[in-house]
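Re: the pair you flagged

First of the two:
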Amino acid sequence: MTQEMETIQLEFNDKLSTIDNSKALADLRVEYLGKKGKVTGLMKEMKNLSNEERPAYGQKVNELRTGIEKQISELETALSKQAMEKKLAEETIDVTLPGRTLEIGGSNPIDRIVEDIEDFFIGLGYEIKEGYEVEQDYYNFEALNLPKSHPARDMQDSFYISEEILLRTHTSPVQARTLEAQNGEGPVKIICPGKVYRRDSDDATHSHQFTQIEGLVVDKNIHLSDLKGTLELFAKEIFGADREVRLRPSYFPFTEPSVEVDISCFKCKGAGCNVCKQTGWIEILGAGMVHPNVLEMAGFDSKEYSGFAFGMGPDRVAMLKYGIEDIRHLYTNDLRFIDQFIPTEDGGELNESI
């Protein structure tokens, strides 16, 4: 039996000396130490030995197994080290190579316009106020001088959740809530950006969901001239320093007097083109002086306080500024459209000549 063990050891040594990879070593381990391996087979011979011979024989077999396991472990470590050294040699990094440019995304045009508008009005001392998209009928309509029987409600086909709860049709409820929270004390100087919802058929210029920004100023001695001056500064900042502003009489229940605000066409400089429909002017927002009823319902003395309000759609501003012909491009995440608004490699502005 001892001779057989020596033969197995010598045979194992010869085979081990030829092993040069982990797979072959694993196969060798199974051949000698597996359930049907040669060393394991020696233990099965113990049944043929007497009780006196078995302890010594078992000790010899265990010594053989331990020695082979040690040899396999040592070679396994050596092979692993060799494989790592080879991999490191093959994957050496050339630190002199230029870095790889990582692709970065860009802001959606609506977000870009909203941020520009917010930055402008913050610079004028306005606060940003946000409110609920699911709103009470009272704040969406009644607090804005639109009682339940008012025909102007038909101008805004709404998504009602219940008789008194709806998806807001404008961000004006934020203004109403802000005025109410002031307890009749000014000043108030805010802009209110956010999503609004109206039942509308989606097409190139309409969407059932869109973005709106409204502004409100309430204080003593606020006049229409203050509104006009603010909007002139806004138009020049967003559309260019040579923009002109004109006000046209209009009607809104929550302002009196009310105006539609146009800017001179930035494409044709007022000569007339497809953008301005040959008029030289582009309508961008509605505005007016805050109606005394709105001030009174919020707890302000309309004889002491006055104010102005305005509202615009950043979606439309983005379409005008960047020449986007279909509002649906702003929402459908088409990469062919979005890629046009990725910042340039030198960190410059996004491409405005799309």
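Second of the two:
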Amino acid sequence: MTKTFQEYEHQAVPIAARKSLFSIAVIWSGFPMVMVGAFVGAQIINGLGFRHGMLAILLGNFLLAGYVAVLSAFAAKEGKSFGLSCRQLFGEWGGKLITFFLSGLVVGWFAVQTGLAGESVFKGFGLSQPVAIVGVGGLFTLLATAGLRMLNPLSILSIVLFIFTGIVSLALNFQHHRLAEIIAYHPSHSTSMALGGGVTLAISVFIDSGTLTADFTRWSKSPTQAVIASLSAFPVANTIPMLLGGIVAASLTAKDGNFAQRLNQLGPGYTLFAALFFMINCASVATHGLYSAAAGWESLFNLPFQRLAVNLRVREATGTSLAVLSRFGCASEQCNR
């Protein structure tokens, strides 16, 4: 562990080391403001129509917000990571079991985002798919080795690019579609889903990482600031991509919710910008997931040396391997349906 900065994996974060409200709010918001949310938002709108779909998205996000806010307040009060808090609440072995499962689960965020970014590099530069994914996985891991210090600027960059891309995409979209026709959108009977199903989808995207909120909000100076920071992520940051994806889906512009595709019509320069935005967005989400997973497993195994010297190397190998396998698996006809 360096002398200039500690991650406090094995102890509570002291008050003197806590971060500002802005810093924690930005770090937390940079996690759920992700393109996967746009894909899920499109799926909900395609299944429920725009009005009922937005109701499901809002209900799901407000339910998730309440859950994460309570956990965040507790995290700031104790100053402990998710792993340490679990052992305090559920006992030594109960806490270890929960931490092992959930911290391992969020490695999947690293795998998925690495796979998506690697495929983008593969298509853009003509590299072999495994090489592109492994290279991207290594880059994302290097970013994560800086810990909380890297999450802050990376989150700011990702959020700014996301909002800019969303605004430009909406402006282009509303050149050809009226708001009234988008609001009136309703799917065919064959593709409809129940309202409860839409609410569940909205919650499910970040229920795992939301449960791990202590890994981020333990750095807050007070429970009040932790709650405010968590609310900036849920419902605000988590709703934005779902809304954007739902709008382009209801416009029949991009049924999968990929609003960034709208930039392609402006020319090669904007297409390159869209690719850069996608890469940085994936980097932010992957780094957050890897940080949270490493913090949990380090507290679990109580490693006596720097978390990012060994644990993240294991995480890189695991996550990158999963990413390669996931992309090869999705090459099959069944996965592409």
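The first helix runs from residue 21 to 29.

-B.
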